[in-house]
């Protein structure tokens, strides 16, 4: 690299060894405005770096027009910064041949390393200039603009670099805005000779695949490939343009553009002799020289063209299947220059033609190509006797139990009167494709996931990884070990509907011995047609496809959302509301669980419906009602509980009921307590798929945590009590009958009871001779009395009264509580609370003063 260092004005010129430094010592004046170069934008300043831990200071440029790579030697980069009251500038000339001071990569980066003193990021500017000194690109750093001229929009290129920041770069690479490094010092690594955003991958070298021999009457087939690495395991993914040598003879011209690997490019040479093929120039440029390959081996890039030889008519083949191709011995017709049948081979038998296989892609020599039943050697050639017809043609039967891109080479060396006759020819490249792709899905690389039914095993959770194996195979299932291609997985069909397959996009490099495997997942319930496809295998236009039915898939888990159920308080008219022990109570709002089938990722599996729905009463377990105090009698619950109903779309309802009601077991009297009732159930389906949080619960058996009651959850041990009544036969007689509850010590009036209904018909009246219902009048002595009461009770009081009969007598009264068993009591003292209350109403008998306990007459 040539350097030119100067200030202004000129006082003296100093010539230094190896560099040219021009010092101009005059008062500081701004240079004349620089016009725009005709190459404006063809090269840009891409990165500027000051002294730091990763690199010496540098300026990186990027060539945007690759075709100018060989024209930059007269261009240069000028860096300027303030030095005292003067401006110090340095010119750095491009010199592609001088790699001692800077280097040119396989892609268009040119890196300059000015001295530390010339890279003052505190204030400097940089220009790229052509041979005439006009500006190709410009950058101002921190407002320094000594070189700023009148060159359109590039004069606006500027960047501010803060203290501690070591450099700036374009983002995106080559075309983006200038930005300072995001972090300072060692925290931000520069990228000399590389893209700032990782967008460009270098070309390691170009490869030229060509035949060793060709005919003057037939074009030779040549293929190009841009290799991204030394072994050409992967191709350069962007477009590349090359200029081929020789200049003439190429179909479509010697400038060819392709991506990765080209189609066949035809080279014609009409006179016998050798032609050397090569790449004169390329865009992008490659790091290493081009390499030629013939028959899978490195060659000297030479094609020998002959006036006579062999031509083939061949199409793409299918592995393990016989296919006929045509071989013809030809010579150049002197008049038409076309290939015609060689009379020397017409109607000849047992002509010993040597045949050899060129393994092009992949170059691995694993399997022999069979021709007319003969196995060609993996390396070298073998002579096969061939019979030619009147047009000097013969049919060859090919059989290849593998896959790949091949070329068949033929040669004949004359003897006897044909001594010195050399004939050769190569077939066009042809591709042998597998018959199909074998697709296998397994749970563990052993157990096949091949259940196409809606029940049974095997089954696998939706969204969970399973193993997928894809192999290129013959029709009989024989694996073609050379097969490797970019392979996609898809789900073209599913039962009951297709979901989404994730994973399983295989690169060609993932294959080993014709087989590739990796994990994949399926998003839905049911079965899926898993299809593997290798599109346009080796450029043949053939899509190699295979599919299999994979299943059965189940949900990975269930989510369960619950409503807010509540019980109906049996007696809600008073305050507080209450329910008696032994009294049934129902749900005001019944519990409902909404079950949703989910895959591993939490998405709903909408296919979990119909025959694929596997939740039933038999699969649910552990349904339990729990309480803090007391025991529940659940005998009234429905036989089917919960009721299961599908909503479709992977959802369903579990609806609970109370049937004829729940009730607390009524034993010995106990103090009132709050009913804290919890309900739980385990959700499973027939495949053992579980809710993510079993058991699913409503409320809990804990203080204040039970399911709600709509008007209070207090439970009371109650009874209906009656007392004897005495009074005048001329007055209405009130008989005490009231609702009571046990408060923990004694029975007290239940003033909150405004619910108990005891119709008159539930009273049994007996006058000693006659029994009637309470709704009927009854004889008392010579009179009649009728009963009345409150229905329902009022503040716990029945208000039972009998009309005045006008005659002495009594009425024996019993309340039939067969419909209100929770109000019965052990009135007879036998230990069983199964007795109805009873009392006597007596008319015409004075009951005495309440204050007198005992009175008797004295007799003398």
Brief rundown of the structure:
By secondary structure, this protein is an all-beta fold. The chain contains no helices and 72 strands.
Would you mind describing this structure in some detail?
The chain is mainly beta. The model is unreliable at 8-29 and 97-106 (pLDDT under 50).
Provide the fold topology:
Layout: E1 3-6, E2 14-16, E3 19-21, E4 43-49, E5 58-63, E6 76-83, E7 86-93, E8 109-112, E9 124-129, E10 135-141, E11 158-159, E12 167-171, E13 177-180, E14 205-209, E15 213-215, E16 220-227, E17 239-245, E18 255-259, E19 265-267, E20 273-276, E21 278-283, E22 291-294, E23 297-298, E24 302-306, E25 308-313, E26 317-318, E27 323-332, E28 339-341, E29 351-361, E30 370-371, E31 374-375, E32 381-386, E33 393-399, E34 404-413, E35 422-426, E36 430-433, E37 436-442, E38 460-461, E39 466-473, E40 488-495, E41 501-503, E42 515-522, E43 526-534, E44 544-554, E45 557-562, E46 566-567, E47 578-580, E48 587-589, E49 592-598, E50 621-627, E51 632-633, E52 643-648, E53 651-655, E54 663-664, E55 673-674, E56 677-682, E57 696-698, E58 708-709, E59 714-716, E60 718-722, E61 725-727, E62 733-734, E63 737-742, E64 747-749, E65 763-766, E66 771-773, E67 778-780, E68 783-785, E69 787-788, E70 801-802, E71 809-815, E72 838-843
Parallel strand pairs: 10-11, 14-22, 15-24, 26-36, 38-44, 46-58, 47-59, 61-72
Antiparallel strand pairs: 1-7, 2-3, 4-5, 4-12, 5-8, 6-7, 6-9, 9-10, 12-13, 14-16, 16-19, 17-18, 17-21, 20-24, 22-23, 25-27, 27-28, 27-33, 29-32, 29-34, 30-31, 30-33, 34-35, 34-36, 37-39, 39-42, 40-43, 41-42, 43-44, 45-49, 46-48, 49-53, 50-56, 51-54, 52-53, 55-59, 56-57, 60-63, 62-70, 63-64, ...
